[in-house]
Here is the input.
Amino acid sequence: MKKFLALVMALAMTLSLAACGGSDAPASSGSGESVVAADLKVGAIYINSKNDTAGYTFAHHSGIVGGMEDLGLDPATQLFIVDEVPEDEQQVLAAVDTLVAQDVDIIFGISFGYIDAMEKAAAAYPEVIFSHGTGYKSNETNFNNYFGRAYQARYLAGIAAGLKSLEIGNNNVGYVAAYTTAYAETASGINGFALGVQAANPNAKVYVKNLGAWADEVNEKAYAEELINTFGCGVISQHCDSAQPQIAAQNAGVFGCGYNSDMTADAPQAHLTAAIWNWNVYYATAMQAAIDCEGDASQFVTKMGGPAYYGGLKEGFVDASPLTANCAANTDKAIEAAKKLMVDGEWDVFSGVKLTVAADGTITQADADLVDNAGNVIVAAGGPSVEDGVITGTMNYLVAGVEEV
Here is the structure.
């Protein structure tokens, strides 16, 4: 989710602690005692409300709860949350202090802008495990980071958007982006989606509006409306935290692809599919590692197999949400075929091999240059996919067929 830029907050937000239990929660091993599943206390710091019904925080919260349930843990007594914490170092550190005072064993911080505070907290509290979502910092003991191949899921959503654009006879596709080339996460997301669109509709053009913020519900909707009304877009996708772009699409009688979580309930007449995260895959893995540490937080990075977790379609960490009846014919066949290539390791998005989706949903492959929108060849025809370090760290271009407006 995210190479997050710290949000500029006009007013300091009040930390809201939600202990999903009470004073009778099981004893913790935060002091270094041996921990078993029934004793594990999980802390989480959220950028938005724990009560969100769609979007980024909702997806993480659902993943943490789901991961706990997968392990037989009880969120009602073992999960402690501080939500609505902005990307301000002092407020994040205060949230950490609140959770440490609750004797939690592991703290998940879900927003990129928490990165420096999480690093400092891991050093200050070596007996506690710290796990930072979408970041890149870590240490060798009690602090790791985690993210995934969202671009793969976006490619699948792009196929759905491209096929729908063909069906409705509109080659203009819109994309409301938190940022564009300022972060590799956002650039790779835009590019993955656009390449999926182009696989289905080679004449499609993707118009991108840059929010300059990860969450801005007012402009998320306004920018989607601009893409529809000014640029004539018939399908709207997004990299932002709320379902407002999908709601705008429905209000305008066009279609959309959401992000983070399935947004069909928010826009049932418009939504095609969403690039989604199955965060429970990671959270269950991390919580099991915390249990396996047996109270020694310094073993966490070793138990996790390294300082960074990076899963994709193969691991079930990302996916396309269930397709709706709004999708064009054979969208399911095309998405399953493309997904299989990625899961089997036979192909990936940013390579010198282009997929083409036929009307019957079948897919063909052909060597072709991967080119940016300035005409530069990124990967020569037949070449291997760009390295993970580019996708997660240095991708600062948009592919051909994408225009920032």
Summary: The domain at 16-148+278-311 is CATH 3.40.50.2300 (Rossmann fold). The chain has two domains: 16-148+278-311, 150-276+316-404. Residues 156 and 335 are 6 Å apart (CA to CA). The longest strand covers residues 271-277.
